[in-house]
Structure formats: C-alpha cells, structure tokens
Amino acid sequence: MHSDSYILSLAIWVPIVAGVLTLFMSGDAQKNLARWTALVGSVLGLLVSLPLWVHFDNAAGGMQFSEFLPWISRFNINYSLGVDGFSTLLIILNSFTTILVVIAGWKVIEEKVSQYLAAFLIMSGLVNGVFAAMDAILFYLFFEAMLIPMFLIIGIWGGPRRVYAAFKFFLYTLLGSLLMLAAFIYLYNVTNGSFSILDFHKVPLGMAAQTVLFFAFFASFAVKVPMWPVHTWLPDAHVEAPTGGSVVLAAITLKIGAYGFLRFNLPIVPDASAALSGFMIALSLIAIVYIGFVALAQTDMKKLVAYSSISHMGFVTLGMFLFSGQQTGSAVGIEGSLVQMVSHGFISAAMFLCIGVLYDRVHSREIAAYGGVVNTMPKFAFFAVLFGMANAGLPGTSGFIGEFLVILAAMKINFWIAFAAATTLILGAAYTLWMVKRVIFGAVANDNVRALTDIDGREMLILSILAALVLAMGIYPKPFTDVMHVTVDTLIKHVATGKLN
Amino acid sequence: MNPQQINLASFNIGLASPEAALLALLCLIMVAHLFWARDKQEGRLLVSALVTLAITAGLVICVAMPPATGSVIAASNITPVQYAFTNMFVVDAMATLLKVSLLLAVAITIIYSRAYLAARQLFSGEFICLILFGTLGMMVMVSANHFVTLYLGLELLALSSYALVAFNRDSAKSTEAAMKYFILGALASGLLLYGISMVYGATGTLDVSRVAAVVAGSRANDPLLTFGIVFIVAGLAFKLGAVPFHMWIPDVYEGAPTAITLFVASAPKIAAFGFIMRILADALGGAVQDWQGMLVILAVLSMAIGNIVAVSQTNLKRMLAYSTISHMGFLLLGILAGTKNGYASSMFYIVTYVLTTLAAFGIILLLSRDGFEAENIDDLKGLNKRSPFFAVLMLFVMFSMAGIPVFVGFWAKLSVLEAVLNAGYTWLVVFAVLMSVIGAFYYLRVVKVMYFDPPTDTLPITAPLEMRAVLSVNALAILVLGIVPGGLMTACLNAIQKSF
After folding, report:
1. Does B216 touch chain A (CB under 8 A)?
2. Other CB atoms closer than 10 Å to residue B479's CB: what's the count?
3. ipTM over 0.90
4. 3-state class of A59 per DSSP?
5. N or C end of chain B, less CB within 10 A?
6. Chain B interface test: which of A184, A185, A212 (most B C-beta within 10 Å)
7. How close is the nearest chain B Cα to the Cα of A220, in Å?
C-alpha cells in the first residue's frame, strides 16, 4: 500500500497547526492577530479539503485519497486514511463550519481569545481525522482526543452551569467510547492482529459475537448521536456551551455518531444490525415523536433547538436501519440519512447562530424575553424565519429532502413507521414556528427588544452563506447525493450478504 | 553450579560494576560533603549526585553490550542473559532497560526536589546519600537472580525510604507516616520472607533459575509451594500498594515532604515491577495458575477502591496516592495475563506511568514555595491564568493518567487491555474500562480547577531554571511518546522476549 495523495493529511493537520500557532498569541495586544491567524487557518483548512469533493470519483467504490504510513509495529497500528461517499461531505461540512465558528466568535469572545480559537481549530482537525481514519485505533484516537477541546470550550466559555455540563458531556461520551475500544481489541484478536477497519468489515463473525459488538458500538455512537434514552447530556451541553460550541456540537459532533453507525455497525456486524433493526427503529421513532413533544414544551430557545436536533437525528438513525429487503428501499433510506446529516449540519448551525445573535445583544435565551424582534431587526427576522422553515422541513429547503427520502423508505416497510416519522413534519413545524412566532413576530415586547440593533455585516455574511446552502441543497441536491450513491450501494450489498455464511 | 568449580573468574564481577561504582561514589559523596562549605554545598551535592547517576547509567549500558571483539554489533543481538556471583546476579535486557529508566527517574527526582528541600533546609548530604542508597537497592532488586539477593535489594530500598519519609523530623505528620510505613513495611517483608522459606521448603533451592526449573517440573501442585506463593504475593502486593495491602500509600504520600513523596512514588515502582517479574514470571512462572487468580482479585480491588476513593479526595497528594493504587491494578492486569506480551505491556505501563507521575509531582513542587505547600487540589485554581504553559503541561499529565489519547497513558492502557483480553478475561477488560470512566472524573476535576476557576493565589511562579526545563521536557515527553509510542513499546517487548 502507498499514499495516493496528501489531501487528507492536510485537512487534518492544517487546522491543528494553525490552532497551535494561535495558542502562542495569548497576549491582550495579540487578540486581533490571533483572530486573523485562526481565520486564515480555517479558510486554508476548507481550501485544502475542497479537492476531496471536486476530485472525488463518484463512480468508484472503495476508499479514495488513501494514505498509508506504518505507525506502531508492535500492534500493527497504521496511520491509514481514506474517504468514501460517506465521509467526503462530512469533512467538507466540518471544515466549512469551523470558518463560521471563527467568524461568529470574532467580537463576542473577549476573554482568552487565543485559547478559544485554538480549541476550535484543533477540534476541527481532529474531527476531520475521525472521518478520514481507516485504522480503528487511529479513529479512536481522534474520537477521544476531540473530547478535550470540547470539554474546555464548554467549561471555560460556557454559561452558569458549565462545569456540570462539561463533566456530563465528557463522562457520558467516554463511557461509550471505552466500550467501543474493548470491541476494537476483540476484533483485533479475531482478525489475527489487524486494526484496519476494512479488515474488520471482512472478518466473519458469529451471531452472538455480532450482537455483543453491536451493543459495544451502540454504546459509543448512540450517546454521540444522541439517541433516546441516552440523550440527556445534549440539552445541558448545548445550553451551557458558547454559541460556537453549540454550533460545532450540533453540526459536527452529532454526525460522528451517525457516521459511526455507518462505518462500524452496519458493515462489521451486518446480521446483528439486521436482527436489531426493529430495536433501532423503535428508539429512532421515540426520538422523533417523543422528543418532538418535549421540544414543544421548552421555554429556552437553545434547549428547544437542542431537542429539535435530537428529533432530527432520529431521522438519521431511522433511515440507516430500514432494511426492506429491497435494494432500492434501503438505499433510499441511507441516502436520506446522509442528506439529513448534512442538511441538519447547516440548519442547526444556523439556528444556534441566530440564537447567538439575540443572546449577544440581550443576554437571555428565554423565549419569553423576546417578542416583536422583526420590528427592530428586519434583516435578522428574514433569516430566522427562513431557517425556522427549513428546520420544519419546508419543501425547497434542505430540511425537506432528507426527511422525505427517509419517510419514503419507511413506507416500503411499514405504513405506521412512515406515519410516525411523518408526524415530525407537524411537530417540527409546531415547535419551530411557534418559537419563531413568539420571538420574531407580534408587537415589541419590552425595552430590550426596542433597543436591539440589526445584524451587522459579519453576521449577515455568515447567515447569508448558510441560507444559500440550505436553499441550494433543497432545490438541487444532486451534487450531494451523487457522491454517495456507489458507496451506499456497496454497503447495502455487503449488509445483504451478511457474515454468517 | 558445583561448589568446587567456583573461582574468581566465574564470579563475573564486572557485571556488577554499575552497582559497585554507585556504591563507591555515594560513599565518596557521603564523606566529601562534610568538607564542603555550607554555601556551596547545595550546588555541589546536586552536581555530584547527577554525575554519579550518569556514570552509573553509562556503566549499565556498557555492561549490557557484548564485548567488542571486532565482530559487527547488531542492535538486535545485544544483551544475552549474563550471570554473575554464581547465579545470584543477572544482567539481561529487562534489567538494563529498567535500570536506565529508574536512574533517569531518580535524576529527575533530585532535580525537582532541590529548590523545595533547600527552602526547608532539607537538601543535605544525608538526603542525597539516602536516595542513592535506595537507588542501589532498586538496581539490585531488578538484577537479582536469587531470593536472598532480591530480599537484600528490597530491604536496602525500604530502609532508605523509611528514613526519607521521616526526613523532616520536626513534622509530626511525616514522623507518623514513616512510623506507619515502617511497621507495615516490616510486616510485609516478614510475609515475603515466610513465603520464600516455604518456596525453599518446596523446591530445595533459592536460586531463581533452579526454582523455576523445579516448579516447571513436577512440583507445581505442591500445597506447600501454593502456600508460599500466597505469602509472597501478599508481600509483593504490599510493596506495590495493591488493595487490600494499600493502607500505607495515602498516609505516606500525604505525610512525607512532597519531594520525598515524589521519590517514593516514582523510581521504586519500576524496581517493584522488576522484583515482581523476577519472582512471579521467572521463578514461579510454572505456577502461573496459582498466582493468576490472586492477581485478578488484587487488580479488581485496586482498580475499584483506588478509583472510587480518589473521587472524594481534596488533597492532591492523597488523590494521586489513590490514583497510584488504581494504576497498580492496571499494571497487575498485564502481569496476570502471564504472557510475554502481557509482561511487555506492563513494563511499558510502569515506565510511562512513572514518567507521568514525575511530571505530576513536579507541578506540585513547582507551585510550592518557601512556607507554602501546594498540596490541595484547590491550590491549582486558575493555573491557566497564572501560567498557561504549566497548566497545559498539567493537563497533559491528567489526561494521560486518565488514559485519553493522544497521551502516552492511553497506549499503556491499550496494551495491557489487549494482553488481558488475549488471555481470555473479557469481563476484566469491561470492568477495567468502567473503572477508568470513574477515574476520568477526578482527573478532570483537576483540569476543571485549573481552567474553569479563577485563581486564588496570584503570586508568580518561582522555580529554578533547570527544574522548569526538565519539567517541560518531562511533560512534553508524555505527548511525544503518545504520538510515537512504537519505539518504547518495541524496546519493552524485545527486552522481555530476550529475558524470559
């Protein structure tokens, strides 16, 4: 094996190096220097990862842009990278989101600026590593190391209960991922000493082993997604995290959980995944319906969006486990999941940024503290309503495509699954639009709202880019789905074959 | 070996030259320092101690190399196992690697301790001599091939440690700690000796190689031997600080002056590992079924009690004491696997753990100053504001101890877990994993006070340059070894494969 290119390494290390550089600009006088360095670093990070999409061969199966470097011979651990149709878009999404976060924190963060920016940049590189790693231990390394910057982001720049939230976030995730590590070591023994994920895909496993492994992976990824009932860390973490932290959590880290299901559960334990698909569907539906109702009852905007994220991620997991026995049905489900992942990345980022815009001005996240914002912030209101609509799954926005595809796939299995899933179109509209109505429309509620100033150029820039992407993906999703077709088909064939024979 | 055959040449005295040199130089220091002027004593002691350690380390490496006969010295064929003093003393790859590590650890200990002890008028010739005597004991422990030699090394280390813990004789706390340490330590030595006498009864020899041969033969199921193993394991567990023989650890860690705690917590752990390997893996390797079950219990209890009790500690030294206990549980996991991979993993674990511990206590010593002991977790409050650099270093240490990648502690945990799973103890792996989640909590708490809390102590950090430099290298090594752990892992594996 050899390395085809160095694009993936660049996508991982450019942000990390930029982050470490930023760390050295810790003086008060160097705040602006740190900001510009971070911005340049994050833009470079996106530029070096763009070739992954542009030069991606849509027709080829398997891994592309592979890199291989022997690392630890004692355990046959290698620095092995590669992307397929699942990970390409997620890497781009992550690199892109990092730029937004850097810009969003430009004026808001005044304390320990360099550390704040460094944490996000390092985080960004590590997340790219998670998506690109083709060696299980390398994956685990990035997966865990990512917790450190996030822990610090929530704990240092977060809200009043930040310490509690940071600990809960860290320990919840750690518990799950350590069980996954045990599973990796088990597979290492079964494969006679290989940590390569592709070898894991091939190794035959009995049903009992598959079931145990399924739950070990489940413990790790279900927490990350998060699925009901292990979702409780998410609202806490979201509410306490600074805006940038919420954006990264919602747009990126939740996707890692879903990506894990695709990369590990489905291919490594296909038969257990098929056997337990009812269980996964049930949990997903609970997330979609029950959490949807929970979201309806929230009075805190961030919490509401956090619950809405859980509900939307329910669609992602639902789409992955719809085994209809028909090739096309399953494919539609998984593609729906992937589209939903990317789309949710845009929309949730946008929603949290909108809340951040209000919070920076009024310092309250309570819905009741607002009302009639449209009167003082018309431009902002336009974006808020647009993203609200997208969150509710309005056709023409990206939110619609993913949900529609998943419901379509569900319909092939069972009408009632599709029915339950479709209630989100009502529930989502209810909680989102009700919030939008209470916050944006109506008469000016109080003096705080009267004193609001409309968004400035910086905020305008971020929100416009996101709005453009949400609409583009809603109207013409083909460039996004083309990338994943072949990979999805390969996966489904692999799952259908199973490992028992 | 037949008594008639003994002659001076077969003693192979040269193999013990590092130990001999250490002893000679330390006696020299002991006498010479009395003639040094008071104001120059501190610097001279530091330099002479470091030079002594460097010479010893150099000799260790020279002795391990095969005689240069003009033939090509391939890196892979160094250190065949060599015996000296009619099989009482052995030099093999494991001993060499452990000796170099422990000498390095002692050197770092002395550098970190200097300013702290000097501020308390404790940095004296006696301190240096006791430490070096302890070091000599440790070197004998890892190189002994006879139960009597093993015991000799152990006692030399133990007696030096007792005296060091009581070194600040005006402190009631230190004296109490030393008293506890001494009484419990003596008890454990007694248990160990009793066990050794039973092994002698069962096998008729105290020579490690010959015990191994007898045990591997027909005597493996001898009840007398089994009883002996029980007492030996209890004695070893005490020295290591594994539950339920851990009671002395928290008191000694807390009561001793921090610099002494640093000594007790670091290099002797490496020696204890070598000691255990000589007895369990080498001499009693044939009776692995007998001691495996005992180690499982010790490991489980250590990981559970160590991690759970550490959560409720407010004193940083005490917290690190319980953390040590839990780490010793992990160390035992690799040994109980009973395979070469397992031993190598444990060896990697202990070397990297000592490196991490040195940095942890280094930070505590850094924050202490004349008349102020930084020993509560709260004393680290707001370290990120006071010194972002040292805060990051402490963050490395804590995350490494918690086993979070990319720090070296992760690789240590990964390799012992792999060995245990390979030995068929899946439940033990799951248990260990759950315990490390609990462990993560208290390490995170240290990170929390450093990063999330405002500082209460705003005085600038004053520490000598050489300490800052060594501490930085020490802590950065935790990260660097985390990124490229392969070399040390392979070195440990090679050492074990060549020695057993």
Report:
1. no
2. 16
3. no
4. coil
5. N
6. A185
7. 13
Per-residue pLDDT of chain A (501 residues; tens, 9 = 90+): 455 678 888 888 888 998 888 888 877 777 788 788 888 888 888 888 888 888 888 777 778 888 888 888 888 888 888 888 888 888 988 988 888 888 887 777 777 888 888 888 999 999 999 999 999 999 999 999 888 888 888 888 877 888 888 888 888 888 888 889 889 988 998 888 888 888 888 888 888 888 999 999 998 898 888 888 888 888 888 888 888 888 888 888 888 989 999 889 888 888 888 888 888 888 988 988 898 888 888 888 888 888 988 888 888 888 888 875 555 567 788 888 888 888 888 898 898 888 888 888 888 888 888 888 888 888 888 888 888 888 888 888 888 888 888 888 888 888 888 888 888 888 888 888 888 888 888 788 788 778 878 888 888 888 898 899 888 888 888 888 888 888 888 888 887 777 776
> What three-state secondary structure class fits A482?
helix
A167/B417 CB distance under 8 A: no
Question: From A189, which residue of chain B is nearest by alpha-carbon distance?
Answer: B422
CA distance from start to end of chain B: 20
Q: How, if at all, do strands A77-83 and B82-84 pair?
A: unpaired
Q: To which H or E segment does residue B82 belong?
A: strand B82-84
DSSP state of B484: S
Whole-number Å distance between alpha carbons of B452 and B447:
8
pTM equals: 0.89
**Contact between residue A214 and residue A280 where contact means Cβ atoms under 8 Å apart:** no
CA B409 to chain centroid? 16
CA–CA gap between residue A319 and residue B165 (Å, rounded): 64
Distances (CA, A) of A313 to A11, A93, A251, A291, A345: 26, 16, 11, 11, 10
Nearest to B486 among A72, A145, A170 (CB): A72
Name the residue in chain A with its Cα closest to that of B416: A185
Structure tokens at A37: 């360095």
Residues 383-442 of B with CB under 8 A from A: 384, 388, 395, 399, 404-406, 410-411, 414-415, 417-418, 421-422, 426, 429-430, 433-434, 436-437, 440-441
Q: How many CB atoms lie within 10 A of CB B386?
A: 18
Provide the token pair at B325. 């206990």
Contact A75 B418 (CB under 8 A): yes
CA atoms lying within 13 Å on the CB side of residue B262: 28
Residue from A164, A178, A179, A188 to probe the interface with B (highest B Cβ count within 10 Å): A178
| A71, A72, A74: best to mutate for the B interface, most B CBs within 10 A | A74
**Residue B493 near chain A (CB below 8 Å):** yes
User: Which residue's entry shows tokens 């939903």?
Assistant: A340
Contact B399 A148 (CB under 8 A): yes
Rounded Cα distance between A31 and A112, Å, is 9
CB-count burial class (<10 Å; 0-12, 13-18, 19+) for A330 = buried
- In chain A, which residues have their Cβ closer than 8 Å to the Cβ of B426? 182, 186
Residues 6 or more apart whose Cβ sits within 8 Å of residue B99: B18, B57, B60, B139, B142, B143
- Is residue B194 classed exposed, middle or buried when 0-12, 13-18 and 19+ CB atoms within 10 A define those classes? middle
The C-alpha atoms of residue B488 and residue B500 are separated, in whole angstroms, by 18
What residue spans of B277-407 are helical by DSSP H? 288-311, 316-336, 340-367, 383-386, 388-402
Q: How far is the alpha carbon of B208 from chain A, nearest alpha carbon, in Å? A: 29
- What count of other Cβ atoms lies within 10 Å of the Cβ of residue A394? 19
